[in-house]
Structure formats: C-alpha cells, structure tokens
Structures
1.
Amino acid sequence: MIIVLVILIALFLFGIFFYNGLIGKKNQVTNAFSAIDVMLKKRFDLIPNLVEVVKQYTTYEQETLTKIVALRTKATAGNISEAEKATLDAQLSSSVNGLMVNVENYPDLKANTNFINLQTTWTESEEQIAAARRTYNSAVTSYNNSIMMFPGSIFAGMLNFHPIAVLATAEEERKNISAKDLFNN
Amino acid sequence: MQDFLAGNVALQNTLATMEVERRKVAAEQKRGIIYIGIGIGVCIVGLLLGLLFWAVLAGLIPVIYGIIVLVKIREATKAYERAYKQNVIGEALKFIDPNLTINPLDGISSDEFSYAQLFNKQIDRYKTEDLVSGKIDKTSFYFAEVHAEYKTERETKDGTKTSWIDIFRGIVFVADFNKHLSGVTIVKPKDLVNTVGSWFSKNIFSFSDQHVIQLENPAFDRTFVTYGTHQIESRYVLTPAMMERILYLNANALQSISLSFIESKMYIAFPLDRNYFEAPIFESLLNPVSLNTDINTIRFLCDIVKELDLNTRIWGKE
C-alpha cells in the first residue's frame, strides 16, 4: 500500500515538474519570438530616415526607394501574419542591402554622417535580429526536445503540447550572393 | 639568430651591454652557491667522521660567506631584472608594434580580475606584474601576468595547516570590444565541474541571473560552456564567425582559455605554467631563447585583435 502511495506521489511530483518545465520552455519560445518582433520594428523604423537621406543625394535610385517604402508600409500594417512579416523583412533586407552596394556610385552620400550612422545602425540591427532568431530557434529546439523525447513524449500528447517549427532562413537570404546580379541591378 | 634581432641594432646593443651585467650577476650568484655547497659538504663529511663540533664550525664559515655574497648581489640582480624588462622587453615590444609599452610594476588589479567573472572562487592571495598595453588600429588592449590563489585550512595535531591552491596562473588579456553590451557573457572550458553546473542550472535551478546559453555550433558547445544574462545579447556577441575564431584561438593556446564579455570589454584568461618576461641569469643574452619565447607570446596576444576581428567597427561603436 505504502509503495503504491510513494509511486503515486512520485508520479504526481514528476507531473508537476514536467508540466511547469514545459510551460517555462513554451514561455521562452513566446518571449524569444516577441524579441524578434521588437527588433524588426526597430529596423523598420530606420527606413523613413534612410530613404530621406538617400533621396537627397541620388537621382537614379527612385525605383528602389519606392519599393523599400512600399515594403515597409506593408510590413508595419499590423494586419499581417508573422510569416508574411518575415518574408517582407527578407525582401526589405535584400533591397536595402542592394541599395548599400549602389551607394558606391554616390561619393557625397557615402561621406554623409547621417548616412554612415544609419548604415552602422542597420548592420547592427541585422546582427541583433540574427541573434534573436538564433535565440528563438534554440528555445524551440529545447521545447521540442522536451516533448518529443521519452518519457516526455507520453505526457506531452495528453497535455496537448505540440512541436513548433524552427525559423528557416528566408529563401532570398539562402541564395548564394552573385556579384553579377548585384551589379546588374 | 631570431628574426626580431636580425635587423634591430638598438636591441642588439642593449643586449650586449646587459650581457656584461648578467655575467657579473651570474658569476657572483654562482660563487655564493658554490660556497654554500662547500659548507654543506664539509658539514656532511665532518659528521660522517664523527667530528660534530668541528664539522659545524668548519661548514658554517663558507655557508655564511656564501649567504653574504648572495645578499650583496641581490640589489644588483634586482636592478638587472628591472633594466631587462624596461630596456630589452620594452625595445622588443616596439619591434612588434611601436604603440606597445611595458610597465613591469603595474598589472591588472584584483578588482578588475574579479569583475571579469572568469573564475568563481574567492581570491585570498593575488599577484600581478608586467603590464603590457597598446593600441592596434581602433582597438586598445592590455595584458599582464596574474597569479590568483585561494587558501584551505586543515586542522592537524600540530595546529592549523594552510595550503594555497591556484585559481589562475597565467596571462589575462583585456581588449576594448567592438560592440555595445549591457549584459554579461562568459565562456568557460567544458570541464567536469562546469558541465555538471551547467546541466543543473539548465534543468533544475539556476542560482544566479546568468543562464546557460545553448549555442548551435557543436564544436563550440563541446569545448565550452557559455553563460549569459541575456540570451539574445550573448548570441549577438558570439556570432557564428566569432565562435569559429574563438575555437581557433583556443586551439592555438597552450591550455584551454576562458573568456568574458562585460560592458564594453572582453577578457581572456590564458593559463600558463611559466613566469614570462623574466630576465635570464644563467643563460646568455646573445642567444636569448627565453626572450624568443616571450616575443612569440606577445605576438600571439597582439594578434588576438586581428584574429577576433576587433577592428571591424560597423556595429555603431567607434
């Protein structure tokens, strides 16, 4: 009788620890995801200033600038899904990075302090977003491991916990950089 | 002859002048040691012959004389050692980089060493010397020899027995980091204690505000345990490229290194088992083997700035 009771108490305690652990890990995933969102917003906020500065010095980049502004407006609209936001961000990144390469043609713009500041902030935000994405993926992997490994896998199904997909690199970012494509833009 | 000496006439002249001083010091030290040796020898022979009083008396005279010789040469030895650091090491540093300077009496304070959080033990005895500082391009850095110890006390029948155990002995390297940081990231070698500690804080409970950072580079995760106050910031510091560079640096160091990134600085601890930048007494300065090792060590440390790409300032920090 006592043995059964001990086993039941042990099972009950294991259940509590396991459940709380999973909730903690799931919260970490949510937290990491919102961190990406905050950083994306920070990056989107850079766009208007960047466009303003570039506009003053360049005459031939209007099309790229219009495209960047349009993408930003879409990305900050509020009624889009997270997946769409990620795709828009990838497109926005590639457009801005293309613009940064073209800046080589405008020595005055390249030397402008505002532009240099914006450029470094942009690079910084890229690395911060990359770090936030890696944090998210690490949190997701830790959560997924807990619910997919034995004995967690038995309880996870009962408690309605499901695996979450990790963030993959956007198709545009995964492409190998081709110098030819960059300079033919 | 070593490459740094080949074209450096000033250093060659300094070494030639100091060699005279070294020979003087070495000859006197040798003389003192020989007299002490003779005294001890006479004592032993006398004792074997059963002449206790005469053995001690005859042995004591050369021993005392030997000690006097060693005491008399002590000041000259110290002056020679100081001059060596200032003139020889100082000159050799200029050859590596004109901005490098050495201050033999200065070091990294115990406060700064503790602040770097590279080791957890409470320090009971701390020694530091030979501060080398410089600036390569935009990155200023400094490093010094550090010996930190803690003590353990044991009660025995003869009273309390104190023994000193090393926390760290080697060189601590500090450089201005190229990114703004608000938290703390610590990278420690994956030994048994750190592995068990990290498993405990990851799976059971973390006693501090630092969490284990699980990084996606398997080689890095096999070699080091990483702790940080902010998950994202630690990854902002330890980018995939940075992790590869740290692994390369670790592979080229004699023993496993520890690193920390706090506020605007990075700290690296290189454990070493010999005392660096010391003047050789019984080894010629004209073919300086230990100087060559020292120069290679300094070069290795200065190259960290390039190896870790600290001069790339594109993240908003000048």
2.
Amino acid sequence: MLLLLSAAAVAVASIPLVYLAVRTSEAGMARVLDEVVSARVGTLALRTLALAAVVTLGCLVLGVGSAFVVVRTDMPARRLLGVLAALPLAVPTYVAAFAWTSTFRGLEGFWPAALVLVLCSYPYVFLPVAASLAGADPAQEEISRSLGRGALRTFTGVTLRQIRPAVAGGGLLVALYVLSDFGAVSIIRADTFTRAIFIEFDLGFDRTGALVLSSVLVLLTTVVLAAETVTRSRGARFASLSSGRRPPNRVALGAARWPVVALLVGVAGLSLGMTVFSLARRMAVGVSRPGAWSDVLTAAGNSLWLSLAGAALTMALALPLGLLTARAPGVLTSTLNHLSYLSHALPGLVIGLSLVFFGINVAYPIYQTTWLLALGYAALFLPLAVTSVSGAAVQAPPILEETARSLGKRPVTVFRTVTLPLTLPGIGAGAALVFLTCMKELPATLLLRPTGMDTLATKLWSNTSVAAYAAAAPYAALLVLLASLPTWLLAVRSGILAKEVGP
Amino acid sequence: MSRLEITALAKGFGPVTALDAVDLTVPNGTLLAVLGPSGCGKTTLLRCVAGFERPDSGVITIDGEVVASGTSHTPPHRRRIAIVPQEGALFPHLSVRGNVAYGLGRAERRTSRVAEVLEMVGLAGYGDRMPHQLSGGQQQRVALARALAPRPSLVLLDEPFSALDAGLRTDLRRDVRAALRAADATGVLVTHDQAEALSMADAIAVMRAGRVLQFGPPADVYRAPADPWIATFLGEATLIEATLRDGRADTALGTVEVPSAPPGTVTALLMIRPEQIHPGPGPSSHAPAKALVESLDFYGPHTLLTLRLSDGTQTQAQVQGPHPLPIGTTTPIHIKGPTHTWLPT
C-alpha cells in the first residue's frame, strides 16, 4: 500500500523527466549527438560541476562551522546568532545576486556567483547539522575522551560521524540547488548549464537544443547522487526511547569568543546585511516609483496562496515515500528516492516547459490553474519534503505502533493517535521548508502561473528586468520578510534555540 | 481468563529458521516463561502470538478460537492480546493516564478503570505525569497497567525487566506477578534471565535454535533438565561422567546415591548443583572426598566456593552465610539429595 502510493508520488514528480525523454528521443540520435558532443557542452559541464563543488565545499565549511559554535560552545548571544545564521534561507539567490551586482558594478563570472550562492545556501547545511549536533548523545563523546582521545580527535572520530547523515543530506541539497539555480547565475552572468539552457530557449524557435542540454544536466545530477550514495553508511535509524538524555557538552571558547562572534556577524552581514542595505538604498534613491500598495498586497496574497497549495500537494505526495524510507529501506525505496531527486535538480525552467506541454496535451482541465503550478512545485521540491518526513518518522518507532495495535486499535486509529502526533512536528518543519522554497521559486512560477496572476517573485523579476529597481524593492523586501517566518520556524525546530536545562 | 495453545508453529526468515515445530500450552490464569539465549526464536514466538508476524505453518488458538494458522491471520487489534515491550515503549506524547486509557473504549474511559489498574501496579496518583518524568521501573509499571487495562485475554511480556537494575528488578518481578494474579491474567514472559523465569513462572519452556527443548514446571526443569545444555543454562552445575553400579556411583566428589539408576553397570553423566555440595564429612559411612578451596565469593545470604577436586575437576559449592574456610585449605565434602543423571542413548 505504502509502496504503491510512493510509486504514484514519484510518478507524478517524474512527469517532467518523461517529457524530457520523449522530446529528446523525438529529436533523433544524430541531432542529440550533434548538440551534446561539443567543446562548449564539455566546458559547461565542467564549469557547472566545479561551481557545485566549490559552493558545496564552502557551504559545508560555513554551515558545519557555524552550527558547531552555535550549538556546542559558550559563545555570547548564541541564540540570536543561530537565528541570523538560518535567515539567509529567506533570501532568494536572485535577490541577493541583484543586491550585489547593483552595489558593485561589473561583478560577474564564476567566483562572484560562487560567493553569492554560498552566502544564500549555507543554511541548508547549518540547520540540519545544528539540529543533529543538539540531539547527539554526549555520552559517546565522553567515552572517546575517557579513552584518551583529545578534543579534536573526538570531534573528527565521534562527533562528525554522529552528524554525518545531516552533513551529507545538507551538502546534497546544496549541490543539487547549485546545479539547478537559474536566477543568481543569470544575473551574475556565470556560464552554467541552466543559463545556457535559458539562452538556447530564448534564442531559437526550436526547443530541442534546450531540452538536450537539460538531459545532460539530469546526467550530471545522477553523478552527484551516485557519489552521495557511495559514501553513505547505514546508521541507527530510530531514536533511542530511553529517557534522561543530557544536553550536549559545550566548549569554552575563552579569548577566542569575540573573534568567533565577529566572524559569524560578518557572514550574516555579507548575506543578509548586503541585501537589506541594497534594497533600502534602492527604495530611497531609485528613480522609478513603486506601484500602488494594493498591487504589492495582491502579489503577496497570491504568493502565500500558491505556496500553500504547493506545500500541501508536495507534503501529501511525500508522506508515503518518507514513511517508506524510514520503515522499509531497500533497493526499491532508494531507487524511488533517487528518481524524486532527479526532478529536483532540473531547472525550474525545464519543469515549467514540460508541465505546460503536459497541461496542454494531457491534463487540460488543470492547465492555467493553481494546481498545475502546485504540481510543478511538487516535482521540484518532493525530496525536501521526503527528507523531513522520513526524519520525522524516526520519532515514531514501529514498536509504539505495534503496542497500540495490541491494545485493540485499528491501523487507521493507530496512525491518527500515535504516528501522526509524534511525526507532526517534523512534518510541519518540512512543510515550512517547502512553503518557503515555493515562495522563492521563480522560473517555474513565471511559466505555470495562471495568466494575470502575479506573485512577489514574478513582480520582482519583471521590474528588475526593465531596471525598475525602486519599484522592485518593496516586492523583494516583502518576499524576504514573509520568507523569514517559516525560516524562523525551522530554526526553532532545529533545537538550537533550546534554553539550558539544569546543570 | 484464557487458554493459549500453540501447535507445530514454524516460521522462517529467508534461510534462517526462527521457529521449528513449537508446541506449547498455557492454561487459564497461569504465566509461562519462555527462556532461551539471544536469537533462540523466543521473541519471534511472541510476535507470532501477538500477530505482528505471520507464522509459515502451525496453529495458534486462544480459548479454542484459531487466531493464526498457515492460511488465516487475525490482525493484532482483534486478538485482545496486550504486550509489554522492552523498555516500556510508552507513547511519549501521552500522559500516564492517556497511556493507560489508550486501549479502553470511550465509555470505559469515564469509569474508574484507569485509577484501578494504576493502583494495581502501585502508581496511584501518577496519572498526570508524562513518561519522561518517570524512572525506568515506573515506566515498566505503566506499560503493564496499559496492557492490563482493557482486560486482555492474554498478556505478553517481552524481556520487560532487562533494562532495570538488579534491586529494582526483584521488587518489580514480585509486583508484576501479583498484578497478573490480581487481574487473573494469562501471560507469556519472554526472557533470557533464568532467575526471572524460575521465580515468576508457573511453567517454563526452554528454547534453543527455534525449538522448545523442555517444557514443564520450573522446579522440575531445574531439578531434572532434559539435557546437559539446559542444566548449565538454568544455573551452575557440575557435570561428571561416572559408572553406576547398583544404584550408586563412585566419583571424585565421593560416592553418590543415584536412586533412579537401572540395575547392573552403566556409564552415565551426573549433574550436581552447587547447593547439593556441602563442605565437611557427611553422615555416610563412605570415606569423604577431599577438595581444595580455590576462591570464595561472598554474596551476603550465601557464599559460593570454587573447589578443585583430587582429579583436577573444578566444581562449586554454595553454603549459607559467610564461610570460615580460607582460600588454600583442603576440606572434606559430601553430597546431599538425589542426583540427576543422563543415561547414554
């Protein structure tokens, strides 16, 4: 049952892949080879992978480092800095890229793009790693210390291993995000696959070139996924039921505390401060006038409603697959999981195109409705939701459900009274993440929204593309503000804000 | 309450045979202990009875009603079989009252049933606590109350005391036994702790490698184990090969009376428990055997002596209270009570 529902969910998420396969095969082998086998594609592939590698590495260093000092040291104002470290998640990469390029003229190319992407994406690593550091059992570290290992060797030998799944999961999200990012790389003019796909699509009437390039991107994603699977190791899948866990040990920073604080504040300044400063300046000195406030409010309403629909549909599809991942791990389950990741790495542009095609030819009743866009969001963000559902399912070990059934409750009742209440907080966090990501999403929204329905993201885009920066600023500001709410929720969930309990 | 009958139950996981032709009967209101080392199939047996696993073949009946066979399978929630899992497994999001009331119907929740079972397990007044505010022993008591509340036909206990410390365990065992009696519940206790099985159960089934090796009252199984492996699994035992002649055997422990021996001369394996070996010359006319005291373990109420016999065999004797013999002395020893023997087959 669970397997069937999961397969159905993955099938829905794979609609764009099917479209891609059909269209690519229609183009004929000769044409495909012609497009793919070229020096340009090789260079693009290398550059895209290099960007993904650099950004992932940067995010891992920044994310794990800041998570460690926030959760495991006696740094001053650690709760405030924890929130600051999570907040860049609320800034869409294209908004940050716009902020940087409008402040420093002529900023373009590989390294600036890498910088902006790292600054916007490191919370993908920070949040899960901080949560995992907060929840890790300190007894294991103490045992390592008592066996004569120093602080550093304990960290690399025990702590890093405990948080490994979180580090790997966060790193994977970053790598996939970079592969599919469109807004930042096109504003900063870094030549990557997504930008090339967009240019192909924009230049010619023939979309085959763009689609073939998209297929190559899917292959690159497979490489990244395979690399992640190879390095994965099986760990304990269920939370310990025993009570009386102690809070984690904290490292006394001593004299190093202020430089560490300065470092974190500096990072937050570069990621958040830069955006806020630039938006404020634009609003103050811009020559273009913002439109009526009612326009802004309508766009905000649309953003909220579309993101809500997207998050709801995504979570509904993710629930069976996430539970299956936690309960019955196996070849079939991981294959389904990986299939869902493939769509996640597709540029929103390709998802948008394929669903337009799907809407016109197969599912006309939902074409030009909110639900086709919601479907696009689901195809894009299913893995985000699946990860949080399977993480949450760990909170409800099977023994609890079995006990409940032995007490005479039907499976449906057990699900409602035991499984759901225990997993709901984690599922809620997943929904918040999906909601947030839907709100920031741009290219698929541009293509799939019902005609005339503007969101904050599309308004922002249409204004910046005609250089109406001051008009764009209120949309950007409201978008970041609204996105901060679910981000804050996520930060709270991660446990980094937990107050000290007892000695 | 109810009678559980298991006939020719078999269950395999791929190439591994977890249960192999298991036959067991648990009469109304009694407690059966299934005893065996890890991996012997005892937990699989419990899960088959609870309905979490489907047996490959064989029949399980409760009060004559078939709940599982090779072809039919009553789902767990219709079996009226409650389980007390390892470490309690209380629902962490529910209070003690919520946990205990979980298996009750809407109408019954309004009665005093919850207070009644909490009283029965010695936790009256704990209803509003949350599971994480309870000690390990209290959590187990709540898990038992939760299982007993809906008046199940059968209570299954899956190593319920293994996570607790020794002192607490003894108390809890006694209380659990009393609570089960008070509820007139039929129970199956799965454990690898022989003291737990011997002290709590009305009957013991010793399992190894998916098979029930012996099934009977605790005293019988302890006194007359079916084979040497069971003998040593149930407690300390010295096994000596000896020649039986006219109902007695000459061993390094001295001359031993074997009332059950067949007439004539046969070779047999003898089992002697530490509490049967006593230091000092015995009342018999035979010359007593001698043993060297190698070590002493003082436990308070009794002392365990490790002895080396003249032929090099090591054995243990259990004596009341502290023992004055220092290590290194040689003492005469004698054996009291009937000795169990296995004749060669």
3.
Amino acid sequence: MRYSLLLINQEAQDAGVTEEDMAPFRAAFDAYGKSLEAAGVLVLADILQPVAASTTVTLRNGSLQVQDGPFADTKEKLAGVFVIEVDDLDAAIAWAEKCPGAHYGVLEIRPTAISFQNGAWHELA
Amino acid sequence: MARARAELAARGSYGRLLSLLAAPTRDVAGAEDALADAFERALRTWPESGVPGNPEAWLLTVARNRQRDDLGSAARRTTVPLDVLGPDAGQGDSRGRAIDLGAGGAATRPDRRGGDAQPNSATPATPLADPAAIDFDAVPDKRLELLFVCAHPAIDAAVRTPLMLQTVLGFDSNRIAEAFAVPAPAMAQRLVRAKRRIRGAGIPFAVPARSAMGARLPPVLEAVYGCYAIDWQRVSGQTVRDSLAGEALYLATTLAELLPTEPEVHGLAALLCLSIARTDARTGPAGEHVPLTEQDTSRWDGALIARGEAHLRRAHALAVAHPASAAGADGSRGSRSTAGATAGASGFGRFQLEAAMQSVHCARAATGETDWRTLRTLNEALVRVAPTLGAQVSLAATIAEVDGPEAGLAHLDALAIALDPEAAASAALARFQPAWATRAHLLMAAGRPDEARAAYAKAISLTTDARLRAHLQAQVPQ
C-alpha cells in the first residue's frame, strides 16, 4: 500500500530554531532518506519551504483568487511529505517512528486512495 | 599541557565537582555556570601560573567563590533574562553548556552575561578557602545523590538520561541532542526545564532511605541503561552518532562503586560489561550483522567479560544474602508492568537476570556450546519479573532451542491469545519486528517454508535497519 507520512510541526522561525541547531539534524534526515531508499520503499521525500512561501489558488467563488499564505493559519504546519510503498500500516508506523521529525513534530500517516499512473487513475491495493 | 590537565580534571571530576556545588542550593544550572567559569579561568591562568598541585580543589574553590558572588548580587541576577524558554528559544542551552569534553574540545562557552565583564586577574578574588588546604579525596562524593536527583520520579522519564549525561559527565547539550536525535533547542529546553524543576520543586540531593530504595533505584538503573540503549532504539539505518556505550558503562560502574550493596546495581554493570564485550563480533567482515549464536567468540573482549562476571557474582551473592533488599521486591511494579528493575519473589532483578543470560551466552567461548536449559530457566524468571515483549519473544526462541520449534511457536501464539485484541499491547505485538523474525525462523526450523516465507516478508517490512534487513533477506527460503 502507498502511504503519505505527513510531517507537521512548528516552523523553525516560530520555534526559534537556527541553521546551526539544525546542522546535526541534517545527518539524521540524511540517514533516514538513505534508509528509506535502501529498503526500496521510498516513492518521494520532500521537505517544504515555510508557509511564508505559500500561495493559495481557488476558483471556488467563481472567480480566480490567488492569495499569499497558507490555506489554514495554524500554529503547526505541514512541513514535509514522505510517500512510501509498504505492505501495511504496521510497516508505515515502523518507518514513521524512525523519522527524525517525530522528535519535534507529528507524523500523520495517510493511505493513498487513488493515484494517477500510466495515463489513468488507479486504486492502489 | 595545562589545557590537557584541565580537560583531564574535567573528565574525571566533573560530576563530583558539580554535585558538590549543586547539592546545597539545588541550583544545578547555577552550579554549572560556576563550574564553567572555574574551568575557563583554569584554562586562562594555568598556562602562566602552572597547574596547581590540587586541581580539583582549585576548581571547587574558584567555582564556590563564583557561586557566592552570584548570591551576593541576586538583584542583578534576576535581571538576567532566562531566555531559553522564551520566544527566542533558539540560542541553545547556554546555561547548561558547561564544558565541551569532545576531542580537542576547549572550554568554549558563550558569555551569556552581557556587560558583566569577566575579571582578568590571574588569581581568584578572596577565596573562601585555600585550595591547597583541601584534601579532595576526603571531600564527600555527592554523585550518588545527583544520580537520584536526575532519576527522581518528579523528573520526566525522557529527560533523566540526558540529565545524567550532562550533570555527571559534563556533556554539552548539543552533543546530547545529537545522540538522542532531537533538535538542539528542544533538548536544551528539556534540560533547562528539568533543572528548574529540581530547584523549584525542591528535589533533595539525598540518597533514599532503605525502605524507599525499592521504588527509587529502578528509575536510576533504567536511565543509566537508557544511555546504552539509545543506540538500538533510535537509529535509522547506519549509526550517525557515536555510541554512548562507554558512557553507560562508566555510569554503571560508578554507581556500583557508590552503592555497592545493591544487587541490581551490580546486575546492570554486569549486563553492560557482557553486552559491550561482544560489540565487535556483532559485525562480520563485510559489515554484515552476525547474530549472537554465530559470533566468533575470539572477537569477544575477555577482560570485559571477566569484569562482568565479577559484578554478576557480587550481584548474586547480595541477592541471596538479602533477598528482601533486592530492588523492587516491595512491589514497585505498580502501574507499569514493564518496570525495568523490579525483582520477583526470587529476589533476582531484571538486570541481574538479563546479565545472567548474557553470561550463559558468553560461556560458549570456553565450553563451545550454549546451555539452553539454563537460559530457559533464567528467561522464565525474567518474564515473571519484567514481562516485556522482548523478554517474551526471547523466551519463545529459548523454548524452541530446548523443546523444538513447534513449542516455541506455541509460546508465540499463546502470547497473542493472552492479550486483549483491543488493547494497545496487542497491536504492539502485531508490529513487533523481533516477534516476526523469531516466528519466521521457527517456522523454517519446523519445516513450514511457505508460512516462514510470509513471516519473513512481514519481519522484513518492519525492519528499518539495513544490516538487519539484509540478514533476514538472506534467510528467506527460495
């Protein structure tokens, strides 16, 4: 099954985390990415820029609205996405608990419903 | 030279000095500041004035003077912002950054006291006592009190091990953060909060009375063991940090010196000696994982095994002589069924039993074989004392060695049945990697390759460590 591990945490600026503070943490994320890759479960791993770089787009009210900033202004923000292909939820939990981000944020594990591949939408088993 | 002496004094005496300084006031952060100042001054003055004959006493005296100065200017002190928990919490634990004991590390410490000029005089101003007159060996050792403070029930369990590393061994908060894979500011915050709690809640620097020892000692032992266990629990893939196994052993050995009459203290020291003795043999020539029963015994550290055996004999003698005094015998099991160092009716605690099991494995170096019957007896006792999933799965494997793989599988099945399917423990067992790896191994031994294949697949899907995964993959039947 395909799962997205959504890393949600306070942004560095809000938490007072500096570049220097993050340096040792990079090694942990590096090892994590390599572990996912070596296990053959990695589909995608992205750490997102802060919501200050966010733009929202909607046509919901009939006209195009493009706005600066995130959809919802929450204290903790979506900070990264790790998409993995594993057998079941147990395996997804095993990987989520190894994510360095779990030590300062929360990982939400969401199974994929349908995915566009080879020209069509597919339900992923 | 002077720097080397200062670092040597730091390494050997940091915890002794800090506990002496912190005990009267319970102000650990203040004691750390005072001690860091003393080390700074040592690095500045010893190269010119020469290393004092009694370096620890010199440091103690200078640090005490600093503490007294701080007390004398309490008004000024309150104006110093404690900014670590404030909105700008990113500056690290400057209060706790006592001294960098890393390779080639100097006593680098940010000067937090803005505008408070450091005195440049080569000699400490009006010392309370002449350092030369202090016999440091006769000064009481307060590290045991400090260890009990670090692992006090009022201190959050997750911060106990980091607190010990910082206060007893003088570890920099950043290095602790790295070892625990926690961002530096988060770790600094936890440490600062814990130290505030020690002071604010009035946690005493005292060794608990005998009657309280059963409840108070296990958390100390668990925190020391936690220093060894971070290697195993936290790392994804290859280890990205230095092992703290040596520090765990140092803490355990120190604890055994300070509290020599508690069997579980020796049990823990024995367990760490015997486990660490096999570190090299766990990795094969190609970097592959080598399971315990296949390890080349010539690569085990004989001297460390001998140390472990000595601790184990001492633990055994103490437990037999005073069964009631064994840690936890008074029922400190309480709310946590997995409490670490509780002892069963036999008086043998968790660490002693685990050490005894390690000892049986280590005996293979001399006898060439493993005494599985004795291991089963010990493992059964361990499950009674500390019924963790790990101990239960280990028992299944041990039963299989004595009575055959089907008996081991039956034990694994019984485990699952005994648990309430709705309970969290049941879900935890269902995704407990060692349970699946053991099941796969036993199914294979029982001649059930199809089921074994499925169990191996599940075990592999739960294995985040590349070495361990390769080891499992090599065993999957074709």
4.
Amino acid sequence: MSSAIAMESEVAALIVEALHLEMAPEDIAPDAPLFGEGLGLDSIDALEIALAVSRRYGFQLRSDDERNGQIFASLRNLAAHIEKNRVQ
Amino acid sequence: MPDTFPLTDRASGDIMFYRGAEAITVGRFLADVAALASRLPQRAYALNLCLDRYHALLGLAAAVSRSHVMLLSADRTERRVDEIAAGYPDLYVLTDADAVAHASGWQPPADALFVTAEGQGEGGPNPEIPAARVAIIGFTSGSTGEPAAHPKPWGALVGATRAAAARFGLTGPGTTTLVATVPPQHMYGFETTMAMPLHAATASHTGPHFYPVEIAEALREVPAPRVLVTTPLQMRALLGSREALPPLMSVISATAPLAPELANEAEQAWKTPVLEIYGATEIGSIASRRTTAGDAWTLYDGIVLERDAEENVHVGVPGMPELVPLADAVAFLPDGGFRLLGRRTDMVKLGGKRASLSSLNRLLMQVEGVEDGVFVAPEDLDSNPAARLMVYAVAPQRSAGEILSALRRQVEPVFLPRRVVLVPSLPRNEIGKLTRQALATLGRQPAQDAG
C-alpha cells in the first residue's frame, strides 16, 4: 500500500469517527466530493473535521485552503492537504 | 419615530470595517456606495449573495440609496434562488468573487452584478431614507417549504440596531470591533455585520472567519475593545482548537440555544461574559441574557410581547407596521422578560436555519419510490450543536443512498438526514399519525439497510 493510499484510509477513518457516520471508512470513494453530491457533508461537518484534524495532525484548516486547494473536493485532496501541512 | 433616518449616523472619519488590519472609514464607504449605486440597474429588488461582509454591506447601502429593496436569503441552493426569482421577477443579483470561489459549487446567474469596492477618494451622498419604506425582505421556509417573505422597514432596522447597541454597550464613545462569524445573509449576521456599522459605534471585519484559526487571527488583527459574535457550534470548535484569543469585551452567541455548560467553559477560557441573543428572521433580535446567569430573557427597549385569546404570543417591534407571531412558546415573567418553553414540535432549527418537519416529510414523500417516510429529530437537538435529523422510509425498490441523492436536490444540506433507514412499514396509528413513542420503537428494531 502506497503512503498516499494509507493516508487516505487514515483520513477516511478520522471522518467516519468525527462525524459518527454509519459507514465503513473504505466505503468513502477517494475521488467523490465530500460535500454536496458524494458524501453530502456541510458546513457543520467542516467544523467537526477541522477540529479532528487539528487534534490529530496539529494544524488548522482555513477557508482559503477550501477555496484554492479545494480540500473538500475529495478524500484524496483532503488527505494530500493533511500530509503536506501536518506537524505531528 | 422620526420620518427618516440617514443611511448612516456615523462621522466620516469613524472606522466601520476592517479588511485584515486595514481600516475602512465611513468616508471611504460612502465613496464606494456611490460608485456601486451608479452601476445598479433600474429594477426594484436586489438579491444580495455577496460572501465578503464589506461587499454585502455595500450591496445593501447602494440598493437602499437607489430605493431598491434588498432580498436576504441565507439559503442559496439553486431551488431557493429560483423560487425567489420567480416571486420577484424584477430583481437583480449581487454577488462577489468570494461567493463564486466558495466550495459550495454555486454559480451566479449570467447577468449577476459583481460587487467590488471601487469608490474614488472619500465621501459621497448619505441619503435620508423614509422610516416606513421597506428596506429588506428576509425569507424563512413556510409551512409547505416555499419561501415566506418578511419585510422590514428602514425605521425598524435602525431602531433595532440602536436598541441592540444600547443593550451591548456599543453606543460609543470609541469604536468596538465586532468579529462576526455568521454569514451576512443570516438575519443575525445581517444585524451584527451590516446594520451595526451603519448605526452603532462598531466596526465589522470582512472575514473569512469560519474556522477557529481564522476567528482567532481576525480578533488579533483588530484593536480593542473586541466582541466575538458567533454561534454555539463555532464557540465549541474554537474552544476545542485551544487557539489563544486576545482580551474580549464580550462574546455574543445566537442561532441556536447555548448550553450553560458551554457558556461557562467559554467564560472561563476567555475571561469574558458570554451573552446570548434571542431572535428570528421575522422579527430580528428582540432579547438577550447572560447564559450563565439563568434562563430568563430580557427584552430590548421598545419590544412588546402580547398574548392573544388563543394563547399565541405576538411581538411588537418599533417601526414594524404590525405585530408578528412568535415561533416559540414562552412564559411571561413578572419583570417583563420571558422564558422559553421549548420549541414547537414541528419546527426544527439546525445550523441557524429553521425548517418544518412536515414540509421536509412532504419532500421525502415526493421522492420516486418512497411509499411512506418520516424525518425524525433527535432528542438532543436543542443541546447538541452538531445534532442531525434522520429518516425512516418505506421504499422497497430504492436504496438509502438513492433516497439521499434525491433529497439533496431539494433540501438544504443541514437538514439532510444523517441516516436513512429503510423499514418495511411505519408504525402509523388508526388515524395515520406517527407518535413519538411509536417512532422510538422503530429505532430499536433491526434496520433492513442502514445505508
């Protein structure tokens, strides 16, 4: 398993745990949008994910990341963003 | 009440906005308003969808200067924007680069006007606006889900702003900075971000400040005294982030009931009083309390509550032509305040937005293949800022995922069910009603498909 894919499953597990989703982490498609069509998350979830990310990886999500890097465009994008910015 | 109020009662050199650490004075604002007002089309209504708070304020001020009515909708789903456009054929859409860049995937209509701050120099007209003229129309979801319009005259808007300023110590001298985390299209966000800088001694911050780190940075960028205007959900996220905040004059919370435990935690962490506002889109803010001091609400000056023969409570707001029914059940207190008696069971409030369960149920029943179905609110809806709805559906030919996809086109994201549970039948009684007790038994049955 490549490290990118390992990171994707780790972040999928984090999302499922933080949002109490009733699905298995591996059921989150790596390419599907997390918001809207796809997983169907919203702004309340974004705050929950931001909190879980700051606790686990030691950095804070920002609106600019959301706009420019489209971090919620897919699990893959979010995992890559975390890998790039994590401090722990 | 006077016959007119100016667009703003503040002095030309007063600071009314911060973009980052850069101060925007009233003089510069009036120049920006004049420039935008000259670009507005000859139409009666402005649907203001700007995301940047200063752009949103420019949209309001320019529209009001041209005697247009500003339409305020926190719901920007395609369905809602189309519904509003159908109701107000003579409207134009105001938007900005931020609104388009945002991840929601929303696209403005092709003829939307992009708001920018493009005034030259300082100063511009500060028109007197008739107090009785409708300045804004807010929208809620009506009983069948259609947008219900709530017009607000300019005088009511100015009166409410001044009453809130008096309540929270924002009348000057000196300017208090408000870092408000609520979208400007939400009535609470509108009052605190757009109306306050015009008629209270306050300056707003453009944002973005959605995530904890952004809220903390915005507060650090602006001078004291500072007030954080936020929601229970963001307060919880900010406390969880452990971001250090500069000294605050107060924290103001609204959009959802604030649990006393959370208020207490915030008061301890930030060494400041946590105040709470009670209001609704129809009436604006009407009362406040310090959450840790008890559950009684104190009305703003000038607000009157009346109970009619059918025990329904109506609110009198200075400058509003008629009494407005109150959505919540309340008990009057001897000192003129009130206590909330819990929400009406059909109405749910999530993420600062209200919807009626019966209208959500109607949308669910319209989904192809759904033979019966019901939205259910969790017991902790009023105390857990992250609580969500769920759906029980009878739909032998459809999967939970298909039902969710169909709902997504019709329902605002916060009201989408977190779970769709398919069941063989719903425990309706002999008159077809679903009681809470019967639904509770459903929750204990093994689900066919947890989706």
